[in-house]
Design a protein that fits this description.
Shape: globular
Helix content: 40-55%
Number of helices: 15
Order of helices and strands: HHHHEEEHEHEHEHEHHEHEHEHEHEHE
Structural class: alpha/beta
Strand order of the largest sheet: 3-4-5-6-7-8-9-10-11-12-13
Largest sheet: 11 strands, parallel
Number of strands: 13
Distance between the termini: 54 Å
């Protein structure tokens, strides 16, 4: 085994160990060459940015982030190509996503495989170049998922994506019994994020996950399109998992109504929520009223009301809510708020930290100029 191969094997074996990554950065710098020197600088920069900030260094961190993004933009495709090739990723921009967020401490942070068989065949080549900490498998059934969680390589995974979907014979998904197997697998002890979009889980399957003695690091769970309802989130709010969750993705189910917002209103111990999503649910104005009356939700940075039943009146209340003064992202796509809602957003004295405001098919064209004057390029319009 070459020196470089040995160093990369050490990184893949223990993804939490920054020392192994820094040693590899030193090796690249000693090896020389423009791309290698840039990669060494990029690894060190991302490792430094991953640690908690200290007082008085915000300026230096902004400069370091700008440097890291510049290096990734210039060399990212070159660095990522061997990893994508090893994983069998289709050679187009959609599949070979190259944004800055696709990197973590100098290495690719997400790998997509077509199936369990594909994973087994290709993972050794990927691990010779890059750790697998984020994992997505496109095609699976209950048996595949049960086999997957027994694979040794998932022991390093912190983010797992098992999104189902399809119809009839092409349907891919799993149910409550397999969710129980996930909850009991010691190989998933490092898991922090779990996306189970469009599977067949009911409240009972979610209950097992929420009370798992293994998944104690899990803090983000997405259940979009499963067979759940307000009662599911009432259970979650009282569970060990609910107490840890920083993102409440209460989305993608007609069975979720404004009652779910009322549940969050009453769960005053949930003071650390950063993301709230009600995308494609039946929430209405009474749900927004409950949220704006919840002083313990002041840590929320992102709100998503895409394709919901809320009206301009709810947005007017939201714009006057001091509790959401820290809001950075607000999504109202396909939720018509009209001119009254647009005016309320423009007049708000609390929405001063907004970095992204999505209003596709939400306001009339006549309101766009005023919104642009208030939010600049942070606001996005269009028709869907």
């Amino acid at each position: 085994m070459s020196t470089e191969a040995a160093l990369l094997t050490a990184v893949a074996a223990d993804p939490d160990d920054d020392t192994a990554r820094l040693v590899y950065a030193d090796y690249l710098e000693e090896k020389g060459g423009e791309g290698n020197t840039a990669r060494a600088q990029f690894i060190r920069a991302q490792i430094e940015l991953a640690r908690p900030p200290r007082r008085g260094e915000s300026g230096a961190r902004r400069e370091l982030l700008a440097t890291a993004k510049r290096l990734q933009k210039q060399y990212g495709a070159e660095w990522a190509a061997p990893v994508f090739d090893a994983a069998g990723t289709k050679n187009d921009k959609y599949w070979r996503e190259l944004s800055y967020d696709g990197w973590e401490r100098g290495f690719r942070n997400w790998m997509l495989f077509e199936s369990l068989a594909d994973l087994r065949a290709r993972a050794p080549a990927v691990l010779a170049l890059n750790p697998i900490t984020g994992l997505s498998v496109r095609k699976f059934d209950d048996a595949d998922v049960r086999a997957l969680i027994n694979e040794p390589l998932v022991r390093t995974v912190t983010r797992l994506n098992l999104c189902g979907g399809g119809w009839g014979e092409t349907r891919i998904s799993f149910g409550d019994e397999t969710a129980a197997a996930l909850a009991a697998s010691p190989n998933l002890a490092r898991l922090e994020e779990l996306d189970l979009t469009q599977n067949r889980l009911t409240t009972e399957g979610v209950r097992v996950l929420a009370h798992s003695p293994v998944l104690t690091r899990l803090k983000r769970l997405r259940l979009y399109g499963n067979e759940i309802n307000d009662g599911t989130y009432e259970m979650l709010a009282r569970s060990p998992l609910g107490a840890r969750m920083t993102a409440w993705l209460v989305d993608g189910s007609a069975g979720v109504t404004s009652e779910a917002a009322g549940i969050l209103m009453g769960a005053k111990h949930l003071t650390h929520i950063e993301v709230l999503s009600f995308d494609n649910t039946s929430i209405n104005d009474s749900g927004v009223e409950a949220l704006t009356a919840s002083s313990h939700l002041a840590s929320v940075r992102e709100l998503d009301f895409r394709n919901t039943n809320i009206t301009a009146a709810a947005v007017q209340r939201l714009a006057r809510a001091r509790v959401f003064a820290n809001l950075e992202r607000l999504n109202l796509v396909k939720t018509w708020i009209g001119t009254p809602g647009a005016n309320a957003l423009c007049r708000s004295k609390y929405l001063t930290k907004i970095k992204f405001l999505a209003l596709y098919s939400a306001v009339p064209e006549s309101a766009e100029k005023k919104l642009r004057e208030r939010f600049g390029r942070k606001v996005e319009f269009g028709r869907i």
